[in-house]
C-alpha cells in the first residue's frame, strides 16, 4: 500500500503526461500480481465496494470530530476521502503494519454495512496520511487525480510494449485484477479470448470543429442528435444468443432499455443515438423527443409498462462495427455506411432507423443548413471523413462535431456552492435566476428572481477566483454548503435549448447551461425576465 | 461618514517608560476608569462600544483612529506590512519601525509616521492607550493592545506561534476582547514542523542535481523565512532571487536577519543555477519568466499546500506546507492561552473557529472584514 500511496501522491503533483505514464508504467512493472492489477483497476475504471461509500466515511468521522467542523472541512477540501485522511486521528499504541493493496482489497470486499465502521477504522489506523488518502480513494471509486482511463491503459501498453488498441480491445472482456492481461502483455501468454462474448468496443469520438473548414468531397455530414450514444451488441454461439446495450462509457444499460435488447436479433455491433419517440418534435424521420423526455428513462434499474408506453425508446443508427460476425471497423466510413444501409431491412423499424446524411454541395451551404436548424433534438452537425476507418477514441481529422450556436440570456447569480476536484474550495457551482416581472416597477410589488439553472463551467481560472471572492464578500445567507449571494452579479448564460420542467420553481430547465460572459458591468435589474426564456422554448 | 474626515491632528504621546510597566490589577482599575469616563463629554465607553468593527477596518471611536483600514484615513494603526493591512495615503501611520520601513519600500508612503516600539505604550486621544506586541507573523508584525475605560482589547492582525528566525515571537497578552484572524481556521490545517518541509527542498536537489528547485514564496516574510530556515539547516550555497525579492531581502538583512549569499537570477547564467535553489513570488511560478530556469522542480511554500487539490490548482510539483499564519492548533490554543471574555474573528475560515468557540463555551463573533486576502492569493 505504501508504494501505491507514493505513486498516487506523485501522480497528483506531476504535470507532464509523459512523466505520469512513466511513473505508472514503472509501478506496473515493479509490482507483483495481483497488487498491480488492483492498482490498475483503481486508476482506470475504479473499484466498487458495496459497503464502503462516502456515507460510510462520514459515519466513521462522526465519532471522531464535531459534525459541523467535519462538514466545513469537507466543504473546503471538496473531497471526502482527502478530508478524512487529513482529519483522521493518529492511533495511540501499536497497530498492525500497513496492508498490501490486495490485502486491503480483500478486507474492503469483506466489509458489510454493520462491520464497515469498525473494520475500516482498523485499516485506516494502519496507514499514514498518504496511505489513508490512497486507501479511501481506491475504496470509493473515483480517484479524481487527473488520470483518465485512457491514460492508465496507455501506461499499461507502454510498460509492456504492447499496442494500446489491443489493450482496449481485450479490456472489457476481463475483470480486475486483470491477471490474464498481465500474463499476455508481461509474460507473452495467449491473448484473452473475445470471440462470442457480447463485448463493449471502444467508441470512435469526435473533436470540436472550431474554425476548421472541410471539403464536402472528403467529409460527409450527419445531424448530431441530442440523446445518448449507445452501442448494441448481439452475439450468437453454441450456448445461445445474447444482446447487450452499452452506454458511452461502456456501462451495461440493457436492463434500462429491455425493448431494445429484444429488438436486435441479428449478430451485429451497432453504434447509434438512443432517443425517445416524440410527436411534437417533428424531426425528419419518425420524430425524436427532446433530451428532457429521454431523461425520464435514464438511470432506472427496472422499467414499468407505463414508462415503456409513454417514453418508447429507439436507436438512430450512425455506424456498424461488426456485421454477421465480420469486424468491419477497418473499412472506410462510406463502405461501412453501405453495410449499415444493407442491414436496415433486417432491423425492426419500430426500434431502429438510420441517421440521415445531410446533403450539401459545399461547406458554405452546410453552414447555412446548420444555421437554420432549430429542431430541439438536433445538437448540431457531425462531419465524418469518408475514407476513415472506425478507430477507438479521438483521432484528429477523422470526425468533427459542429454544435449549433448557443442561445444566450442574462441571469443573476443567486446561490453558489463549492466545487470539487480541480475546483476544490472555490465557489464554482452557480445557481442563477431571471426576473418574474419588471424589477423596476416597485409599485406592483416589484419582481422576484426565480432560479432557472445551474452552471459550473465556461469561465477561466482567473475569473473563477474573482467570482469566488465576490461570493465570499457578498454572502447574505448560508444553507449548509450553499451560500446565498446578494443579487447583484449578472451572468450571460449560454445554453443549447430550454424545456418545460416540473423540477424547478420557474417551470423551466435549460440544456447544457454554461457561463458565457461575466457581466461585472451590468446592473442586476437589467437581467432578463422569465418570459424571455419562455419565448425560447422551441416545441 | 467613513471617508477621510479632516479633523485636528490628534496629539499622540509615547510613554517611553512603558517597556517594563506592570499591568495594573485589572478589576479595580476598570471600575475606577469606567466611573471616571462617565463624566467625559464624548463618552463611548460602556461595554466595548468604543471599539467598532467596520467592513474596511476597526474603528476606535474616542481616538478617531482606525486599525488596518483598507481606505485612506486620518490616523491609522497598522499591524504589519502586507498589502491587505497596510496602505499609503493616511494622514498619520502608527506602526513598528520595521513595518514603517516596509511600508515605505512597498507603498512609497511618507506619511506622518509615529514609531511604536514593541512593548511601548502610546497614548491616543480620547483616553485610549495602544501597546504594540510581537505577532510572530513577519518582520515588524505586531498585535495591538488597546486599553480604554479599564477595558482591554487585543487585535492580532495576522500571527503565528511557531518559531521564525526572521521575526520576534508572538507574545500572549491577556485581554477582554481578542480580535483574531482565522486564515487557517479549519481543523484539517495542521502545519507540520518546518524542518521536514525545508528538507523536502534539499532532498529534491540531492535527487536531481541537474535540475533546480524553484520555490514560490510570498515576497514579504515567507521568502525570507524559507531562506533563513535553509541557512539554519546548513545550506550554504548561493540562493537565487527573482528581481521582485531583492529589495525586501535587503531590507531584512539591514534589520539584522542573516540570509547568507543571495544572488539575482537576472545576473546569472542559466546553467550556473543547476542544482540550486531559486526563490520567486508565487505569481512567477507559472509565468514565462520561470521557463528560463534550468529544468525547475516547481515548489510552493504555503499553508494551503496541505490540501492536494490546492497544490494541483497551482501546478505545484513539490508542495511545502509552510505558513506565516497560525494553524488550527495554534488558533485554538491561543484563544485558550489569552482566555478572553469574547473572541472576534476578522477574516478567514471564521465559521469553523466560531463553532469551536461554541463547543468550548466561549463567546465568539465574526466581523466579516472585507479585502483581507487569503495567504498567497
UniProtKB/TrEMBL annotation, chain A:
<dbReference type="InterPro" id="IPR016059">
    <property type="entry name" value="DNA_ligase_ATP-dep_CS"/>
</dbReference>
<dbReference type="GO" id="GO:0005524">
    <property type="term" value="F:ATP binding"/>
</dbReference>
<keyword id="KW-0235">DNA replication</keyword>
<dbReference type="InterPro" id="IPR012309">
    <property type="entry name" value="DNA_ligase_ATP-dep_C"/>
</dbReference>
<dbReference type="GO" id="GO:0046872">
    <property type="term" value="F:metal ion binding"/>
</dbReference>
<dbReference type="InterPro" id="IPR036599">
    <property type="entry name" value="DNA_ligase_N_sf"/>
</dbReference>
<keyword id="KW-0132">Cell division</keyword>
<keyword id="KW-0460">Magnesium</keyword>
<dbReference type="GO" id="GO:0006310">
    <property type="term" value="P:DNA recombination"/>
</dbReference>
<dbReference type="GO" id="GO:0003677">
    <property type="term" value="F:DNA binding"/>
</dbReference>
<dbReference type="InterPro" id="IPR026333">
    <property type="entry name" value="ATP_dep_DNA_lig_pp_1105_fam"/>
</dbReference>
<dbReference type="InterPro" id="IPR012310">
    <property type="entry name" value="DNA_ligase_ATP-dep_cent"/>
</dbReference>
<keyword id="KW-0227">DNA damage</keyword>
<dbReference type="Pfam" id="PF01068">
    <property type="entry name" value="DNA_ligase_A_M"/>
</dbReference>
<keyword id="KW-0067">ATP-binding</keyword>
<dbReference type="GO" id="GO:0006281">
    <property type="term" value="P:DNA repair"/>
</dbReference>
<dbReference type="GO" id="GO:0051301">
    <property type="term" value="P:cell division"/>
</dbReference>
<dbReference type="GO" id="GO:0003910">
    <property type="term" value="F:DNA ligase (ATP) activity"/>
</dbReference>
<dbReference type="InterPro" id="IPR050191">
    <property type="entry name" value="ATP-dep_DNA_ligase"/>
</dbReference>
<dbReference type="Pfam" id="PF04679">
    <property type="entry name" value="DNA_ligase_A_C"/>
</dbReference>
<keyword id="KW-0233">DNA recombination</keyword>
<keyword id="KW-0234">DNA repair</keyword>
<keyword id="KW-0547">Nucleotide-binding</keyword>
<keyword id="KW-0131">Cell cycle</keyword>
<feature type="domain" description="ATP-dependent DNA ligase family profile">
    <location>
        <begin position="306"/>
        <end position="436"/>
    </location>
</feature>
<keyword id="KW-0479">Metal-binding</keyword>
<protein>
    <recommendedName>
        <fullName>DNA ligase (ATP)</fullName>
        <ecNumber>6.5.1.1</ecNumber>
    </recommendedName>
</protein>
<dbReference type="GO" id="GO:0006260">
    <property type="term" value="P:DNA replication"/>
</dbReference>
<dbReference type="InterPro" id="IPR012340">
    <property type="entry name" value="NA-bd_OB-fold"/>
</dbReference>
<keyword id="KW-0436">Ligase</keyword>
Amino acid at each position: 500500500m505504501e508504494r501505491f500511496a507514493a505513486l498516487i501522491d506523485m501522480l497528483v503533483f506531476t504535470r507532464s503526461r509523459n512523466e505520469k505514464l512513466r511513473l505508472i508504467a514503472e509501478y506496473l512493472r515493479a509490482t507483483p500480481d495481483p497488487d498491480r492489477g488492483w492498482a490498475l483497476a483503481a486508476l482506470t475504471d475504479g473499484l466498487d465496494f458495496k459497503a464502503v461509500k462516502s456515507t460510510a466515511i462520514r459515519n466513521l468521522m462522526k465519532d471522531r470530530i464535531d459534525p459541523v467542523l467535519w462538514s466545513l472541512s469537507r466543504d473546503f477540501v471538496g473531497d471526502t476521502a482527502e478530508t478524512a485522511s487529513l482529519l483522521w486521528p493518529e492511533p495511540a499504541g501499536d497497530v498492525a503494519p500497513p496492508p498490501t493493496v490486495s490485502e486491503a482489497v480483500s478486507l474492503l470486499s469483506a466489509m458489510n454495512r454493520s462491520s464497515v465502521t469498525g473494520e475500516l477504522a482498523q485499516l485506516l489506523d494502519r496507514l499514514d496520511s498518504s496511505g489513508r488518502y490512497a486507501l479511501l480513494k481506491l475504496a470509493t471509486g473515483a480517484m479524481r487525480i487527473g488520470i483518465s482511463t485512457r491514460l492508465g491503459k496507455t501506461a499499461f501498453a507502454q510498460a509492456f510494449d504492447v499496442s494500446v488498441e489491443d489493450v482496449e480491445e481485450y479490456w472489457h472482456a476481463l475483470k480486475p485484477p486483470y491477471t490474464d492481461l498481465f500474463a499476455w502483455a508481461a509474460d507473452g501468454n495467449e491473448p484473452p479470448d473475445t470471440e462470442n462474448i457480447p463485448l463493449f468496443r471502444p467508441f470512435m469520438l469526435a473533436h470540436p470543429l472550431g474554425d476548421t473548414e472541410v471539403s464536402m468531397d472528403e467529409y460527409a455530414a450527419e445531424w448530431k442528435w441530442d440523446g445518448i450514444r449507445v452501442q448494441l451488441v448481439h452475439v450468437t454461439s453454441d450456448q445461445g444468443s445474447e444482446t447487450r446495450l452499452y452506454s458511452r462509457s461502456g456501462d451495461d444499460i440493457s436492463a434500462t432499455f429491455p425493448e431494445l435488447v429484444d429488438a436486435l436479433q441479428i449478430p451485429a455491433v451497432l453504434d447509434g443515438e438512443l432517443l425517445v419517440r416524440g410527436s411534437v418534435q417533428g424531426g425528419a424521420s419518425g420524430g425524436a423527443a427532446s433530451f428532457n423526455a429521454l431523461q425520464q428513462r435514464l438511470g432506472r434499474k427496472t422499467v414499468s409498462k407505463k414508462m415503456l408506453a409513454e417514453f418508447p425508446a429507439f436507436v438512430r443508427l450512425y455506424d456498424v462495427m461488426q456485421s454477421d460476425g465480420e469486424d468491419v471497423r477497418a473499412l472506410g466510413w462510406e463502405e461501412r455506411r453501405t453495410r449499415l444501409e444493407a442491414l436496415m431491412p433486417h432491423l425492426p423499424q419500430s426500434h431502429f432507423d438510420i441517421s440521415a446524411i445531410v446533403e450539401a454541395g459545399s461547406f458554405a451551404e452546410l453552414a447555412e443548413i446548420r444555421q437554420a436548424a432549430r429542431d430541439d433534438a438536433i445538437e448540431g452537425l457531425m462531419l465524418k471523413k469518408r475514407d476513415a476507418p472506425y478507430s477507438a477514441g479521438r483521432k484528429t481529422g477523422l470526425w468533427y462535431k459542429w454544435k449549433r450556436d448557443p442561445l444566450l440570456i442574462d441571469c443573476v447569480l443567486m446561490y453558489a456552492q463549492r466545487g470539487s476536484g480541480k475546483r476544490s474550495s472555490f465557489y464554482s457551482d452557480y445557481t442563477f435566476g431571471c426576473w418574474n416581472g419588471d424589477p423596476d416597477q416597485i409599485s406592483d410589488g416589484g419582481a422576484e428572481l426565480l432560479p432557472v439553472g445551474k452552471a459550473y463551467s465556461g469561465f477561466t481560472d482567473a475569473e473563477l477566483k474573482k467570482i469566488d471572492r465576490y461570493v465570499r464578500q457578498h454572502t447574505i445567507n448560508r444553507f449548509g454548503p450553499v451560500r446565498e449571494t446578494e443579487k447583484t452579479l449578472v451572468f450571460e448564460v449560454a445554453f443549447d435549448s430550454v424545456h418545460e420542467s416540473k423540477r424547478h420553481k420557474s417551470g423551466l430547465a435549460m440544456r447544457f447551461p454554461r457561463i458565457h460572459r461575466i457581466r461585472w458591468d451590468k446592473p442586476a435589474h437589467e437581467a432578463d425576465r422569465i418570459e424571455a426564456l419562455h419565448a425560447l422554448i422551441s416545441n | 461618514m467613513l471617508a477621510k474626515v479632516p479633523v485636528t491632528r490628534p496629539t499622540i504621546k509615547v510613554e517611553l517608560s512603558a517597556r517594563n510597566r506592570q499591568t495594573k490589577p485589572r478589576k479595580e482599575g476598570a471600575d475606577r476608569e469606567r466611573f471616571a469616563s462617565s463624566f467625559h463629554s464624548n463618552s463611548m465607553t460602556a461595554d466595548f462600544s468604543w471599539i467598532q468593527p467596520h467592513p474596511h477596518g476597526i474603528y476606535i471611536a474616542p481616538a478617531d483612529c482606525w486599525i488596518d483600514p483598507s481606505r485612506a484615513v486620518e490616523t491609522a494603526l497598522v499591524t504589519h506590512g502586507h498589502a491587505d493591512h497596510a496602505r499609503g495615503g493616511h494622514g498619520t501611520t502608527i506602526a513598528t519601525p520595521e513595518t514603517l520601513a516596509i511600508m515605505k519600500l512597498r507603498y512609497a508612503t511618507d506619511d506622518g509616521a509615529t514609531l511604536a516600539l514593541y512593548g511601548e505604550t502610546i497614548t491616543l486621544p480620547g483616553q485610549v492607550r495602544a501597546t504594540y506586541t510581537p505577532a510572530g507573523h513577519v518582520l515588524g508584525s505586531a498585535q495591538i493592545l488597546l486599553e480604554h475605560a479599564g477595558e482591554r482589547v487585543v487585535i492580532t492582525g495576522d500571527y503565528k506561534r511557531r518559531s521564525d528566525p526572521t521575526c520576534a515571537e508572538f507574545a500572549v497578552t491577556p485581554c477582554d476582547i481578542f480580535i483574531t484572524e482565522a486564515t487557517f481556521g479549519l481543523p484539517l490545517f495542521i502545519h507540520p514542523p518546518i524542518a521536514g518541509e525545508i528538507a523536502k527542498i534539499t532532498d529534491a536537489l540531492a535527487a536531481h542535481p541537474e535540475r533546480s528547485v524553484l520555490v514560490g514564496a510570498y515576497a514579504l516574510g515567507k521568502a525570507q523565512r524559507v531562506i533563513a530556515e535553509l541557512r539554519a539547516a546548513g545550506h550554504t550555497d548561493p540562493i537565487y532571487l527573482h528581481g521582485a525579492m531583492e529589495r525586501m531581502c535587503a531590507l531584512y538583512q539591514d534589520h539584522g536577519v542573516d540570509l547568507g549569499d543571495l544572488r539575482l537570477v537576472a545576473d546569472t547564467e542559466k546553467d550556473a543555477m543547476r542544482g540550486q535553489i531559486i526563490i520567486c513570488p508565487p505569481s512567477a511560478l507559472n509565468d514565462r519568466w520561470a521557463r528560463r530556469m534550468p529544468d525547475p522542480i516547481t515548489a510552493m511554500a504555503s499553508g494551503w499546500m496541505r490540501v492536494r487539490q490546492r497544490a494541483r490548482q497551482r501546478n505545484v510539483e513539490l508542495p511545502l506546507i509552510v505558513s506565516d499564519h497560525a494553524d488550527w492548533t495554534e488558533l485554538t490554543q491561543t484563544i485558550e492561552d489569552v482566555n478572553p471574555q469574547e473572541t472576534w474573528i476578522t477574516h478567514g475560515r471564521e465559521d469553523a473557529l466560531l463553532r469551536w468557540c461554541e463547543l468550548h463555551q466561549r463567546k465568539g463573533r465574526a466581523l466579516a472584514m472585507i479585502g483581507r486576502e487569503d495567504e498567497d492569493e
